[in-house]
Write a structure and sequence with these properties.
0% strand; single chain; mainly alpha
Length: 50
């Protein structure tokens, strides 16, 4: 039961953090750029391997 409560606590913390991030336009922009970079890397790795 205690472990479950701890899990719930971390889950709530994560949701809170994500909500804060979602509200922050600067972080949103950074996330967008980061995602784009990841996509680019994925594309490059798939093209170089084939």
């Amino acid at each position: 039961l205690e472990a479950h409560r701890q899990l719930n606590k971390t889950e709530t913390e994560r949701i809170k953090r994500e909500r804060t991030i979602a509200r922050d336009p600067i972080i949103q922009k950074k996330l967008e750029i980061f995602k784009r970079l990841q996509d680019k890397q994925k594309d490059e790795s798939t093209t170089s391997s084939s």
